[in-house]
């Protein structure tokens, strides 16, 4: 008898993403409110802007809009990171990109686990921004020891989840029943725990060193700290949050509003104060703030040239502001961003000819029907035989991530660590190298051109 067929990892990811969203909705009711607001704004945009609706329809993004979300976790040790990497691999998610947050005073470095092929992303774009605590950035040796001891004692995975990961690695996949069980078991790692693993005094010590250290070290597992839906109009969301009793952070992170959105714009609301029980307390008398709400708008993925221009303009705007954006200078920061980003072309055609963004090329109806056709890509585009649509940015931005972390960490988080970024250490902990996101976009663009070539029967393009 043959074995039951393996289920597509993308399907496991889709199931996991739904289960995670349901769990988070039950744990943080405000997340449900946010989803409603996002859904409402997205419907409005689709209704008011037929050209946006058409483009999203054509690229398939309309289908994934409602399921689009990312989460974030923070793990404490190399071995936790290595195992979480294996857990995500069961769902077809690989580590993409390296983000060093230490220059912004956040003692972590991070990667994003996500699907890498456009077809898999289309099935489920779910991704998880995953940070590893850098214990070496704790300057107090006793506290560093305490943190290391606490982390060494805990196991953030259920025994059954570990078994299923091993089984999947050995067999090359999971059948439907095992996949279902895997989703349930894997979810346990991301659950919130009211019971802390430290006394109130130990918590205070860890917290005084850095709030993030307490968040990672004082609990049984790396609770998911936010789950972010994707909106088509983040300015509308930012304006709409207060009307629902939600206070957003002072500024939207990332590029300014544009006709042709690029990269990623994000906003969030402050972490919630939640009741927790320390080991020396009877009930949940303590409190901890970790979980927050975030919303994002995604735009075109930029080439190295486009990204360099983005970084240059963002830095120029920030330099002119002279201090970190906050509620007092938010309006000025908005003006400075808009001013500097005038240097970034705001049409897809120009972004393409200047090599600033990645695109997906496809043959049009007209192109398929034509009996005679030009032979070069540019001429085929000019003749309307091939169209191009921007590839959506699937990753994160270090400056934005730092801003999101900081808005949830309070005032003492602005100092930067002198210690330099250490991607080699991160790779060692992960047990692999992170993938280069730019190569992934270039490969997707390439495949779209190959497909056009095959359809049109051309040798080169
Ligand atoms: C992650 C913060 C960064 C993003 O979308 O850039 C982030 C965290 O707070 O753990 O989520
Ligand atoms: Ni996020």
UniProtKB/TrEMBL annotation:
It comes from the Bacteria. The keyword Oxidoreductase applies. Its EC number is 1.13.11.93. InterPro entries: HGLS, YdcJ_bac-like. It holds the Pfam family HGLS. Keywords: Dioxygenase, Iron, Oxidoreductase. It is an enzyme of class 1 (oxidoreductase). Its cofactor is Fe(2+). This is 2-oxoadipate dioxygenase/decarboxylase. It comes from Pseudomonas sihuiensis.
């Amino acid at each position: 008898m043959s074995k039951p067929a393996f289920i597509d990892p993308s399907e496991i990811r889709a199931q996991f993403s739904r289960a995670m969203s349901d769990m988070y909705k039950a744990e943080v009711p405000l997340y449900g409110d946010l989803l409603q607001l996002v859904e409402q704004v997205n419907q409005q945009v689709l209704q008011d802007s037929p050209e946006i609706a058409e483009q999203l329809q054509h690229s398939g993004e309309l289908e994934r809009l409602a399921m689009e979300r990312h989460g974030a976790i923070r793990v404490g040790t190399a071995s936790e990171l290595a195992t979480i990497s294996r857990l995500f691999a069961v769902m077809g998610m690989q580590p993409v990109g390296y983000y060093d947050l230490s220059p912004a005073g956040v003692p972590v470095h991070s990667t994003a686990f996500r699907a890498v092929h456009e077809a898999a992303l289309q099935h489920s774009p779910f991704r998880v921004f995953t940070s590893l605590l850098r214990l070496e950035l704790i300057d107090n040796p006793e506290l560093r020891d305490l943190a290391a001891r606490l982390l060494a004692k805990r196991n953030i995975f259920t025994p059954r989840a570990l078994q299923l990961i091993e089984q999947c690695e050995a067999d090359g996949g999971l059948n439907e029943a095992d996949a279902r069980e895997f989703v349930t078991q894997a979810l346990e790692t991301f659950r919130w725990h009211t019971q802390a693993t430290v006394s109130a005094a130990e918590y205070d010590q860890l917290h005084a060193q850095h709030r993030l250290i307490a968040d990672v070290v004082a609990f049984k597992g790396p609770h998911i700290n936010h789950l972010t839906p994707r909106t088509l109009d983040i300015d509308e969301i930012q304006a709409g949050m207060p009307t629902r009793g939600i206070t957003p952070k002072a500024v939207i992170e990332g590029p300014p509003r544009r006709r042709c959105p690029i990269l990623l714009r994000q906003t969030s609301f402050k972490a919630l104060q939640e009741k927790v029980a320390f080991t020396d307390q009877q009930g949940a008398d303590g409190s901890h703030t970790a979980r927050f709400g975030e919303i994002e708008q995604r735009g075109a993925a930029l080439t190295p040239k486009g990204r360099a221009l983005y970084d240059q303009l963002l830095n120029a705007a920030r330099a002119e502001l002279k201090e970190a954006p906050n509620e007092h200078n938010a309006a000025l920061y908005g003006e400075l961003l808009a001013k500097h980003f005038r240097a970034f072309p705001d049409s897809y055609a120009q972004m393409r000819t200047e090599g600033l963004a990645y695109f997906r090329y496809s043959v049009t109806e007209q192109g398929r029907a034509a009996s005679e056709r030009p032979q070069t890509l540019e001429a085929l585009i000019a003749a309307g035989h091939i169209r191009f649509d921007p590839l959506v940015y699937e990753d994160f931005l270090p400056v934005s991530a730092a801003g999101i972390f900081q808005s949830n960490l309070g005032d003492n988080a602005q100092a930067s660590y002198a210690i330099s970024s250490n991607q080699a250490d991160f790779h060692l902990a992960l047990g692999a190298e992170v993938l280069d996101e730019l190569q992934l976009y270039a490969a997707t663009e390439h495949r779209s051109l190959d497909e056009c070539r095959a359809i049109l029967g051309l040798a080169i393009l």
